[in-house]
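Please describe our next protein:
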Amino acid sequence: MAEHHKVPQGIEKKDITEFDSSKLKHTETQEKNVLPSTEVITQEKTIQHIEAFDKKNLKHAETEVKTTLPDKSVINQEKTIQNIEGFDKSNLKRASTEVKNPLPDKNSK
């Protein structure tokens, strides 16, 4: 089955059949392939290594929970808070204040 193409207006069939391709200018073809960055390649390799990792070679390990003791400043702060909360006001004695050096009045000069 032969394909028939319509010839655009302004071009005659003889222009197509008598076309001389030697009059065309030479052109270099440039193929542009965007290569992945080293970061992308490294990430892909890491994923491949993770997927191919053999878990059978791993050994069981027990986790040790280490309790860290608070330092002296934290202990002192906690003691101070406890002393404030547990302070008994009923043991306080009543005190009266005496003014021994009164300031002069505004009216006296």
